[in-house]
Amino acid sequence: MSDRPVPPVATLKPHSYTRHGVTIEDPYHWLRDPKYPTVDDPEILAHLEAENDYFRTIMRPLEPLVDTLFAEMKGRIKEDDASVPVEDGGFLYQWRFETGGQYRKWYRRPTGGGPEELLLDEPALAEGKGFFRLSGFSVSPDGTLLAYSADDNGSERFTLRIKDLGTGELLPVEIPETIGQPVWSADGRVLLYSVVNQSWRPYQIRAHVLGRPVTSDRVLYEEADEGFRVGVGKSQSREVIFLITGDHVTSEVRFVPAADVFAVQRLIAPRLTGREYHPDHGGGALYLRVNDTHKNFRVVRATLDRPEPEHWVELIAGGDARYIRGLTAFQRFLVLEERHAGLDQIVLRHADGIEQAVAFPEAAYQAGLGNNPAIDPVRIRLEYSSMATPATTYEYAVADRTLTVLKVQEIPSGYDPADYVTERLMAPARDGVLVPISLVYRKGWAKGRGKPLHLYGYGAYGLGMSPSFSSARVSLLDRGFAYAIAHIRGGDELGYGWYEAGKLDRRTNTFNDFIDAARFLVEQGYAAPGGISASGGSAGGQLMGVIVNDAPALWRAVVAHVPFVDALNTMQDATLPLTPPEWPEWGNPITDKAAFDFIRSYSPYDQVAAKPYPPLMITAGLNDPRVTYWEPAKWAAKLRALKTDGNVLVSKTNMGAGHGGKSGRFDRLTEVAEEYAFVIDAFDKRT
Predict the structure, then answer these.
(1) Which domain holds residue 574?
(2) Radius of gyration over alpha carbons of the chain, in Å?
C-alpha cells in the first residue's frame, strides 16, 4: 500500500445553500463548469486529467490482464458481421462490418436482383473523430433520399443531413441540435424532425421542405412544459404521422396524415397526469395501449375521425397477470409485446379476437419484435437471447406458427451454450416481497465453494433488465464467476406496479432489494461473505452509490458507470437537461420538503461518511447530457476525503464521449476489459 501512488485531492471551496430550512454544504460544487455544456475551465479540466492519470497508473499493473480480456472478448466478435437483410420498398437493406472495422456500412440491393449500393459509410464519416454515433436513418418512401443524423462528441445533439442516393451527394441541408428518428411525408418532399434546446430537451417538431432553406423550416409543434419532451413517429400503416409529447407518466399525442403533414392536427386525448397512451395505425383503424383503467395497460381501438377516449372500444382489458409493453398494428393482426410473471411474451391478436402466443425454447429469456417494415406480413421478425444463448433472429410464420432461425450470433473463438447453466431464483426482500434473480455460470460451478459472484442491477424508469446474452461476460464465467442480475423494484420486470414500487417515495425499495438479493445469494451458498462484486450504470450507478454507503462490507468491489449520485443537487437545478422531466420519477425537492428530505436521505454524494468502502471504479463522460460529468467527479472527491480504508478508488472521465462511453465496437470492449480486470483483481484471481 505504501507503494501506491498518491491520488488527486480536489480542493475544498466553501459553497452552501439553504432550502426548506436546511443548509447544505457542498465544497466540491466548483467542479461544475458554470458555462456547461461548454467545459473549458482550466482548473476543472486539470483535476479530471489528474484523475485519469491516476486511473492509468493504478491500472498499469493490470494491463496484461486487460489485454488478455480484450483479446478474448474481441475473439468472440465476428469481425465481418452482418445483419439479416430486411425487405422494404423493393429493396433488401443490410448493414455490415468489415474486418477490423469499428463502425457499420449500410447497403441495399433490389429485391428482384441487381447491383448492390453503399448507402452510408460510417467508417468514413467517423474517420479522424474520437467519437461517432449514428442515430436517425430513414430512407424516403420512393427510395431516392436518405436522411441520417450523427453525433461526433457524445453530447447526443445530432446533426441531420440528407443524401441523394442517386448521385451520392449530400443536399445543402445541415440541421444541428436534432434528436431521434426523422420521418418522411408520404411523397418524400417533407422531412419531420425533433430539435433540442440549450437544456437538451426535445421541445419542437419541425418540418423541412426539400428545396427550401432550413431557416424557413416550419414548427409543427412546440412543447412549453419544461417537464415534457417531444418526438415524432410514423404508423405501421405509413398513413399516419404521430406528434408525441410526454414525460415519464403522462402522454399526449396528435396526428396528421402522412400525405398532408401540414393538415390540421388531430388530438387523440389531452394530457391527464398519470395517463399514458401509445398509438399505432394499421388495417384501417387506430389502436392504443393505455393505462387509464389498469396500470398494466389495456388495448383499445378507435378510428381516425373519432380518436377521442369516448369513442375507444376495448379489445383487451387490463389485468394483473398481463403487462402489455408494446403494440404494433399490422394490416391483419396486432403484435403485443408483454410480460407474464416477469417473462417476455410475444402475442398475436387477430381481427376475430383469437390470440396466439409465440412459443420459445427456454424457460428464461429475452424476446422482442425485430425490424418489420412490412404493412401486411405473413412472417414477422423476432429477436431472442438468454443468459446462455447468443442473440438469435427468428422468422415466425403466422399461419403455421413455426419459428425459423435466420441468424445466431456467431462466436468465432468458440462457444457452446450447453457448457453454461442458468437459474432463476426468488430472493425475499426485507418487506417480504420476492425479488427475481437471473443467474448464469459455467457447468462445474457449484454452490458452497466460495466462488466469486458478480451482481448487476439497474432498477429505475420502468426499464426491466431482461436475462439476455453477453459474449463479453463469458470471460468472467470461464474464470469461475457466476453472474447474476437482480430484477429489483424500479424496473418493470413484474409489471408496471413493480416500477411504481421503486420510484418517488418508494425509491429505497430498489436499494434494499439489491442488498437483500446479495445477502440471499450469500445465505444460499451462491457466494461467500464478502464474495460479491457489483456494477451498475446511470440510475444503476446511483444504486451502486447507495449500496456502498448502506452495506460497504458486503462487496468485494463495485463499478459505477456514469453514476447519478448527486441526486439532491441535480433535482434542484431546473437548468439541467433532465431535471424537470425527472421530477415524476424522483420528486421535486424545490417545492416539496418531503421530497427534499427523502432524496437527501439516500443521495449517495450527500451520504458519504467517514467509514471503510470497498474498492471502487467510477466512470464518467465529459459530454454526457444525462448524468453530468461533475456528479461522479464530486462523488469521487468526497469519497477520497472521507473514506477510512486503504482500498483503491479510481475515477475515469472520457474526455471526448458521453453517457455510453466510447463509440467504436472494439473501443467499448477496452472499457469492459478494464472493468472486468478491476473486478478480477479484487478477488485476486488474476489469470
Answers:
(1) 8-73+534-581+596-687
(2) 25
H or E element, residue 316? strand 313-316
Contact 538, 562 (CB under 8 A): yes
- What is the CA angle 164-207-90, rounded to 5? 40
SS3 label, residue 131 = coil
- Is residue 503 within 8 A of residue 495, CB to CB? The reply is no
Can you give the pLDDT at residue 1? 42
CA 187 – CA 664 distance, rounded (Å): 36
User: Does some domain include residue 558?
Assistant: yes
pLDDT value for 623: 86
Q: What is the pTM of this model?
A: 0.92
Burial of 112 (0-12, 13-18, 19+ CB in 10 A): exposed
DSSP state of 128: T
Residues in contact with 212: Cβ distance below 8 Å, sequence separation at least 6, in sequence order: none
By annotation, the residues acting in catalysis are: 538, 624, 659
pLDDT for 4: 79
pLDDT score for 686: 43
Residue 360's pLDDT is what? Answer: 87
- Name every residue whose Cβ is closer than 8 Å to that of residue 310 and which is 6 or more positions away in sequence: none
Q: For the domain that residue 26 is a member of, what is the CATH number?
A: 3.40.50.1820
Nearest to 620 by CA among 558, 541, 676: 541
Number of domains in the chain: 1
Average confidence (pLDDT) per 10 residues, the chain, 687 residues: 81 97 97 93 97 97 96 95 95 94 94 94 91 92 96 88 95 94 97 92 96 96 94 98 95 98 98 97 97 97 97 97 96 96 94 93 89 96 95 95 95 95 96 96 91 97 93 96 97 95 97 98 96 97 98 98 96 88 94 98 98 97 88 98 97 80 78 96 71
Its sign, for the CA torsion 444, 447, 452, 456, is positive
Q: CA geometry: angle at 275 spanning 273 and 279, to 5°?
A: 135
614 within a domain of the structure (yes/no): yes
**Amino acid at site 124:** A
Phi, psi values for residue 30, rounded to 5°: -65, -15
pLDDT in tens, 219-248: 999 999 988 999 999 999 999 999 999 998
CA distance 395 to 380: 6
Amino acid, single-letter form, for residue 176: P
Q: What is the pLDDT of residue 684?
A: 81
DSSP H stretches of helix in 60-126: 63-75, 122-126
Pair 175, 214: CB distance under 8 Å: yes
Residue 550 lies in a domain: yes
pLDDT (0 to 100) of residue 660: 62
Neighbours of 174 (CB within 10 A): 11
Closest CA to 469 of 366, 390, 367: 390
Answer yes or no: is 248 within a domain.
Answer: no
Please return the burial class of 73, using the count of CB atoms within 10 Å of its CB with bins 0-12, 13-18 and 19+.
buried
Place of cell 448502506: 550
pLDDT tens-digit map of 487-520: 999 999 999 999 999 999 999 999 999 999 999 9
What are the strands, taking DSSP E only, across 444-486? 453-456, 482-486
The 3-class secondary structure across 502-542, one letter per residue, is CCHHHCHHHHHHHHHHHHHHHHCCCCCCCCEEEEEECHHHH
What is the Cα 537 distance to its own chain's centre? 10
Cα-based distances in Å from 412 to 56, 77, 227: 31, 7, 47
Phi, psi dihedrals of residue 412, rounded to the nearest 5°: -55, -35
Residue type, 192: L
What is d(CA 391, CA 523) in angstroms, rounded to the nearest whole number? 33
Cα separation of 467 and 439, whole Å? 8
Burial of 687 (0-12, 13-18, 19+ CB in 10 A): exposed
